[in-house]
């Protein structure tokens, strides 16, 4: 009896001690480093406004967590894995940064996630597209939050094939992201009974797409798909319009298009284009309410990346609050155990490979007549349920996934 | 259908046409660079930024004042040209006669500042500019669909290139310019205001870049970063043509447009590198470039 009592007491005491050691916020500060393209190609879709979204999240959370203050540092990744790596190394090794947020270019994310793993810190990826980030490049130290190339192909490509676009011409940006997207799209097209008759890889970046559009026209394919992003996509769409691609009966499919791209093109040039998105500002009252606040702060409507940064920051801070710790594994586990229900996602789940699985949406750009203002751009055509949209764990090559 | 290396002749004809159109842009831009380098010995790394300012100015003139395309095509180069003159007067003049590297670094710095400031204000997604009504649509040439606007680009670019060449090589003003840069003290002795002439020449070179930008506004995405990519290509064109050669810049510009166009058909991945490959080969065989004057 006494022995049992002693044992119990010591067990409780040690549990408390361990708990006490874990339930601690280092330096009594939660420090978040925001790393994103602040000046280059991906500036508008993430950039300084993403930092604003992060700050909104911290302000909404109350500015502190369990009495510990929340600090933010930020840096321009210049789309360079090298300079980003040294920034993040400095942050985590010398400046006690607990979380790296933003993470836009896939090459940057892959480089940075290795450093986070070495130092056992946490990263939340909101901008990068490559699905390999939670597949062959997965680590226990990052979460991929907003979208990836897998649902982009699943959403847009399968919808366009089902509407009768059987033969495909794919125009691909000649680097890792373009290749990944081209591969995913080819798979989806073939699975749905279509055929890719030609692929052309263009240098990244390219300002003049007229030659490629002419090749696409002479290929006679039903669908001309753009496996590129940012200015490359908008330039290609503008040129396709100029050369009368759609008037001659071909369908144009942009596989990755952000709200900022569509806004730059305008409804006149972009009307009718189908795209896949992880979120849209005008979906419901909740998204509109948050977007209005974002617009008051920034003067523009948020992209899915901006919204994802806000949502993921709130989830992170909630996890820190619940566990009383800023230890990366404790927080990551708590985030995985808590479904995400906010203006960004409903019943979103973070899987063991770090993929945040949530519903995606197939959207179509409105015509100028349908569009009520310069940001009224999408009609949501279909919801793609999360488990349909993302790569199933059974196909995962991630080292964290224990397959049966 | 007749084919060359597995590609139908009709497709190749289309690419040839597009090559000439892109070549016209290269010709216009490299012409400005060649004028500035040939006459002032300034390596103008701000040339891409001036091209961008021309395009941005066209869009902003329309947005703010409703200025139409034709007026902007004249006004934007004049405004940007005046800005060039101000830059020359306050900055470039101070390093005149020094090593080329100073002008290169100074103009590169100016370009980065302009690009950075405008990116902060307007972002990088691009500003919208509608195609002028008169150029909507195009004609079917049998082998390709040629948008009217692209045809206009060729005409406008070639006219301006010819006019510039004529002015510099065949007129009295041109001869003053050439003489002023050869021996400025002698020219000043003749009572000619050489510093003014230099300012005007720099302003004119900048105007050519801004004109190319205004021409580009309806067809390319207009953003603060649009000049940075094209600049390196244009420098390669000028080097191939022979630094400072006016005719060389124009002819090489057109040729490189065509070479790039064909590469886009046979090996698209290499289309960004092909001009540099040509540059390497040309420099090995003729270090002064195809049309360069000195051996």
> Structural class, judged by helices and strands of chain B?
mainly alpha
Topology, number of strands of chain B:
4
- Largest Cβ-defined interface: A-B, 40 and 42 residues
The domain count of chain A comes to 2
Strands side by side in the biggest sheet of chain B: 1-2
User: In angstroms, what is the radius of gyration of chain A?
Assistant: 22 Å
**The CATH C-level class name of the largest domain in chain A:** Alpha Beta
The structural domain count of chain B equals: 1
Task: Tell me about this structure.
Chain A is an alpha/beta fold and 404 residues long. Chain A has two domains: 29-147 and 283-358, Rossmann fold, CATH 3.40.50.2300; 150-277 and 360-389, Response regulator (Rossmann fold), CATH 3.40.50. Helix content of chain A is 44%, strand content 19%. In chain A, strands 2-3-1-4-5-6 form a six-stranded mixed beta sheet, with helices on both faces. In chain A, α6 links the parallel β7 and β8 (195-202). The longest helix of chain A has 21 residues, at 2-22. Chain A is globular. Chain A starts with a helix and ends in a 15-residue tail after the last helix. The model of chain A is unreliable at 13-22 (pLDDT under 50). Helix content of chain B is 71%, strand content 3%. Chain B is built from eleven helices and four strands, in the order ββααααββααααααα. Chain B starts with a strand and ends in a 10-residue tail after the last helix. The radius of gyration of chain B is 19 Å and the shape is globular. Chain B has helices spanning 9-40, 47-65, 69-90, 100-122, 148-170, 172-182, 184-189, 194-216, 226-241, 246-266, 274-285; strands spanning 3-4, 7-8, 138-140, 145-147. The chains are: A alpha/beta (404), B mainly alpha (295). At the A-B interface, β8, α7, α8 and α9 of A face α1, α9 and α10 of B.
């Amino acid at each position: 009896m006494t022995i049992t009592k002693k044992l119990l007491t010591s067990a409780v005491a040690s549990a408390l001690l361990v708990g006490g050691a874990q339930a601690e916020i280092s330096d009594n500060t939660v420090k978040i480093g925001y790393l994103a393209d602040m000046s280059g190609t991906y500036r508008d879709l993430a950039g300084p406004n993403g930092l604003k979204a992060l700050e909104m999240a911290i302000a909404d959370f109350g500015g502190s967590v369990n009495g510990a203050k929340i600090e933010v540092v930020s840096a321009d990744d210049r789309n360079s894995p090298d300079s980003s790596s040294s920034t993040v190394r400095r942050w985590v090794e010398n400046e006690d940064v607990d979380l790296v947020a933003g993470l836009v270019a896939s090459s940057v994310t892959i480089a940075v996630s290795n450093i986070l793993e070495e130092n056992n810190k946490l990263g939340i990826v909101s901008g990068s597209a490559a699905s390999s980030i939670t597949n062959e490049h997965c680590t226990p130290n990052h979460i991929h939050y907003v979208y990836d190339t897998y649902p982009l192909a699943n959403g847009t490509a399968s919808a366009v094939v089902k509407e009768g676009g059987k033969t495909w011409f794919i125009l691909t940006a000649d680097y890792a992201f373009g290749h990944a997207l081209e591969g995913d799209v080819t798979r989806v097209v073939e699975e749905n009974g279509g055929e890719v008759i030609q692929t052309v890889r263009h240098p990244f970046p390219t300002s003049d797409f007229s030659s490629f559009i002419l090749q696409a026209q002479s290929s006679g394919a039903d669908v001309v798909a753009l496996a590129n992003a940012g200015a490359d996509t908008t330039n290609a769409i503008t040129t396709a319009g100029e050369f009368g691609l759609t008037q001659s009966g071909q369908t144009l499919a942009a596989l990755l298009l952000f709200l900022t791209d569509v806004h730059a093109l305008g409804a006149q040039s972009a009307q009718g284009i189908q795209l896949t998105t992880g979120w849209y500002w005008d979906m419901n009252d909740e998204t509109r309410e948050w977007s209005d606040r974002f617009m008051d702060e920034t003067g523009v409507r948020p992209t899915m990346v901006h919204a994802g940064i806000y949502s993921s920051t709130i989830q992170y801070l909630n996890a820190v609050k619940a566990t009383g710790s800023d230890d990366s594994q404790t927080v990551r586990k708590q985030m995985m155990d808590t479904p995400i229900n906010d203006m960004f996602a409903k019943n979103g789940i973070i899987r063991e490979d770090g993929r945040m699985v949530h519903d995606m949406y197939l959207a179509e750009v409105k015509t100028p007549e349908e569009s009520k203002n310069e940001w009224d751009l999408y009609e949501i055509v279909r919801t793609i349920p999360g488990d349909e949209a993302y790569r199933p764990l059974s196909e995962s090559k991630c080292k964290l996934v224990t397959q049966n | 259908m007749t084919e060359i290396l597995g590609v139908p002749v009709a497709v190749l004809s289309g690419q040839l046409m597009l090559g000439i159109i892109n070549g016209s842009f290269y010709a216009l831009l490299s012409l400005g660079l060649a004028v500035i380098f040939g006459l002032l010995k300034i390596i103008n790394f701000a040339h891409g930024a001036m091209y961008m300012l021309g395009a941005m100015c066209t869009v902003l003139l329309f947005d703010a004042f409703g200025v139409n395309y034709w007026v902007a095509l004249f006004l934007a180069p004049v405004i940007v040209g005046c800005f060039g003159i101000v830059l020359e007067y306050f900055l470039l003049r101070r390093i005149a006669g020094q090593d080329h590297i100073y002008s290169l670094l100074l103009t590169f710095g100016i370009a980065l500042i302009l690009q950075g400031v405008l990116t902060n204000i307007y972002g990088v997604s691009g500003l919208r500019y509608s195609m002028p009504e008169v150029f909507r649509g195009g004609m079917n040439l049998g082998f390709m669909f040629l948008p009217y606007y692209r045809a206009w680009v060729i005409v406008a670019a070639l006219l301006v290139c010819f006019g510039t060449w004529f002015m510099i090589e065949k007129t009295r003003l041109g001869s003053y310019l050439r003489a002023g840069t050869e021996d400025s003290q002698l020219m000043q002795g003749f009572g000619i205001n050489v510093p003014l002439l230099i300012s005007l020449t720099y302003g004119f070179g900048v105007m050519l870049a801004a004109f190319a930008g205004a021409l580009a506004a309806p067809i390319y995405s207009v953003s603060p970063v649009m000049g940075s990519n094209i600049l390196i290509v244009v420098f390669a064109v000028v080097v191939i043509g022979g630094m400072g050669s006016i005719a060389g810049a124009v002819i090489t510009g057109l040729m490189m447009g065509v070479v790039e166009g064909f590469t886009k058909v046979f090996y698209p991945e290499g289309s960004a590198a092909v001009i540099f490959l040509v540059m390497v080969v040309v420099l090995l065989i003729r270090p002064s470039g195809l049309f360069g004057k000195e051996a």
